[in-house]
Structure formats: C-alpha cells, structure tokens
Amino acid sequence: MTQKKARYIIIGAGLSGLTTAFKLHQKGETNVLILEARDRIGGRIMTENHIDFGATWFQNHHENLSSLIEEVAVEKFHQFSDGKSVLVYNSMAPAHYFENDPKYPSAFRIAGGSAALIEKLASFYTEQIHTNTVVSEIKEVDNQIFISTNNGNYIADKVIVTIPPRIATNIIFSPELPAHLIHDMKNTHTWMSNAMKVGLTFKTPFWKVKGFSGTLIGQIGCVTELYDHCCADEKTFALMGFVNEALRDLSKEERKAKILAYLQKYLGDEVLNYVTYEEKDWSQDGFTASSDIKSIYMSPRYGNSKFQEFYLNGKLLFSGAETSSIHGGYMDGAVFSGLKVAEKILSQE
Ligand SMILES: Cc1cc2nc3c(=O)[nH]c(=O)nc-3n(C[C@H](O)[C@H](O)[C@H](O)COP(=O)(O)OP(=O)(O)OC[C@H]3O[C@@H](n4cnc5c(N)ncnc54)[C@H](O)[C@@H]3O)c2cc1C
Fold it and tell me: Which of 83, 138, 215, 320 is the most exposed place for a label (fewest CB within 10 A)?
C-alpha cells in the first residue's frame, strides 16, 4: 500500500536526493518519501551492461563524494591508462601517441559502476522510493505542501526539489516562486545535458594486448574522448566515450557506422568484433535536458545563492549538482548540496 504522506518529500532519486535521504536516515529521520519520474533511480548516474552512460570519474579533491563513498563502503579504482594513448588533432596527419606518466595516476572510477553508489544509498529506503512518479505541481496549502503527480497526490511538511533547476521550472509552484528565481533557474545550464555517450563491450581487451591504453582523444573525431572501461575485477571488457555532437542528427545506423569506422582506424579491426554497442543521448531525455540545448556554456557558474534559500514559507528547499557552490555540476556538487540540505532541515527541528 503506497504511503502518500511524509514529513519530508524529496523530489528526484539522483545522487543529491539520495544523499539527503541517507543522511536523514542516519540521524534517525525515516519519515521520508522520494518521488522519481523515471522507471529507475540514479538520474544522471546510469550504469547499464557494465557501462557508465552518465557520471564516471572523480578525483581526490572531490572530498564530499570521496568521504561518502568511504562511508558506505563502495570500492574505487583508478581509470586504466597504461600504454599508448591516441591523439587525433588533424584529419590528414597520422595518429599521434602519448603515454600517461604513472607518477600522476588518472581519475578514480567506482567499482561495479557509478550506480553501485546509488544502490547503496537507496538500500536504506527501498519501499519509500516511488519511481514512475512525475511531479507536476507543488503547492502550499494550510501550512502543508501538496504535491501532484501522475501517480496520485502527496502531502509533506517540507519538500526538497533536486531536479535540475532549468527543468524544475516545468513544475507549477503555488504560491508562485519569485520571478528573479524563475529567471535564474531557466538560465542555469544542466551540466552534461548535451552529452552523448557510446559504450562497446568485447570478449577480450584487445587494445591492451596491442599496447594501447584505450584512450583516444580528438575534437575532430567521431568520438571526442574514448577510454578503457573494463570492470575493476577485469571480468568484463569495454570501451566508453563521448560521441561528437556533430553526429547527433544522423540516423542511429549512420552514426554507428561512422563511429565504428573511426575506432577501427585508430584501434584496429578488432573493434568490429564488439559484443554490444549502445548509445545514450542525454539531450533527448526530458528528465535531464530541456529542448534548448543548442548553445552551451562550457564553464557555467553554479551555486547561485538564491538556490540556498527556503521558499514557500520555509517549506521548500532546492538541491542538486547545479545548486552547489562547490564543484557545481559534478557528482561532488550533488553530494555537497544533498548534505547541506540535510543539515539545514535537521537544524530546524
Ligand atoms: C554523460 C554524463 C557524464 C557525466 N560525467 C561525470 C563525471 O565523470 N564526473 C562527475 O563528477 N559528474 C559527471 N556528470 C554529472 C553528474 O552525473 C551529476 O553531477 C550528478 O549525477 C547530478 O545528480 P543530481 O542528483 O544533482 O541530479 P540528477 O541526477 O539529474 O537527479 C535529478 C532527478 O530528478 C528526477 N526528475 C526530473 N524531473 C522530475 C519530476 N518532474 N518529478 C520527479 N522526478 C524528476 C530525474 O529523473 C533525476 O533522477 C556527468 C553527467 C552526464 C549526463
């Protein structure tokens, strides 16, 4: 039987929302519901068939994320980068090669894929996460918050909106949010909402056997960045990378043919023996991207102070990677904002 009422309702089961939920649970506050539009949890963290189609890497300076990973006992490991990496900077010149200095190890990945962290955080709340639940309206009535969804109505004392600010403007708020806030929400680019990833799995890591790292970089190529994406335990073998956005408007078949030909040219014929080939275009996913993604700020400024305030008479708070003043856009920012919101509501008790 679905519980439709909770003290705290968190909208969005991405990293930020689940971090808040985890922290509330730790402090003994379990009267929490999490409403998630998609049929899966994780938001921009999505691991399928051993491939991270969303967030993948983090570094030592991502301290909030690193501590959380340690706290919930999820394993991390270094992105593999030994061997010859390929640099494509000119379509007519032959490939150039470079090697990473082993003294400066590359970024970390999460063992089992980034979704391993999501699953761990969500494990404290299985029954209280309602997927396939799209929030359309949030109104304050008689000192409570009423939330309308395609899956029925909910009532809360407080609501935490973790949806990327730009698409959170699709929700009807009542009383209306201040016009200056709506303006800033609409102008906050959703980090990576324009990205398109490709992932291929293989029976063997043929690139390693040939002395390649699996890294292939080049803005002029069909895949602008490609990396080894084998599992931590080396039981599954994969390559994963970012598709050149210029290929977005091609048919899936045309794009695949171009990508395979490109990878074949630089890594060898073995590329064609892939076991699975999959793509994820985040720009086509309405729970991350808005339709106007054609122009993109490369380094958007995140952490607008307006997102740190309470709205609807102290009953609405925002969080999420784009609201974070620390490492905004990144997983670390999502965690930081999730932690801050948990602190804020607990300090109000
Ligand atoms: C391709 C790609 C690569 C990335 N690579 C990296 C990386 O390597 N390192 C890194 O640190 N970061 C990376 N990121 C960014 C990282 O994924 C985000 O910082 C982080 O996952 C954001 O978490 P969040 O909870 O703030 O937002 P989200 O994950 O976007 O969560 C918001 C949730 O709200 C839900 N939602 C939306 N609308 C509604 C609605 N109306 N009702 C109910 N629910 C709704 C969504 O479905 C989603 O689950 C990448 C992102 C992408 C897309």
Answer: 83
Instruction: Look at residue 1 in the predicted model and tell me its pLDDT.
Output: 43
Q: 287 CB under 6 A from ligand 1?
A: yes
Q: pTM for this one?
A: 0.96
Mean predicted confidence (pLDDT) in 31-43: 98
Ligand 1 in contact with 114 (CB < 6 A)? no
DSSP, residue by residue, 176-222: PPPHHHHHHHHT-PPTTTT-EEEEEEESS-HHHHTTEEEEEE-TTSS
| Nearby residues of 71 by Cβ (< 8 Å), 6 or more positions away | none
Ligand 1 pocket check for 79: Cβ under 6 Å: no
Question: What pLDDT, on the 0 to 100 scale, is given for residue 53?
Answer: 98
Name the CATH topology of 76-110+194-284: Polyamine Oxidase; Chain A, domain 2 (3.90.660)
Of 44, 16, 17, give the one whose Cα is nearest residue 33. 17
Q: Find out whether 220 and 91 touch, Cβ atoms under 8 Å.
A: yes
Strands 108-110 and 76-78: antiparallel
Q: Indicate the domain borders of the chain.
A: 5-45+116-187+295-347, 76-110+194-284
* CB of 64 sitting under 6 A from ligand 1: no
CB of 57 within 6 A of ligand 1: the answer is yes
Q: What type of residue is 146?
A: F
5-45+116-187+295-347, superfamily in CATH? FAD/NAD(P)-binding domain (3.50.50.60)
Centre of ligand 1 to C-alpha 334, Å, is 8
Q: Is the CB of 334 under 6 A from ligand 1?
A: yes
Q: Give distance in angstroms: CA of 90 to centre of ligand 1.
A: 34
For residue 18, how far is its CA from the centre of ligand 1 (angstroms)? 11
- From 266, 315, 231, 328, select the one nearest 87 (Cα to Cα): 266
Q: What is the mean pLDDT of residues 94-110?
A: 86
Does ligand 1 have an atom closer than 6 angstroms to the CB of 54? yes
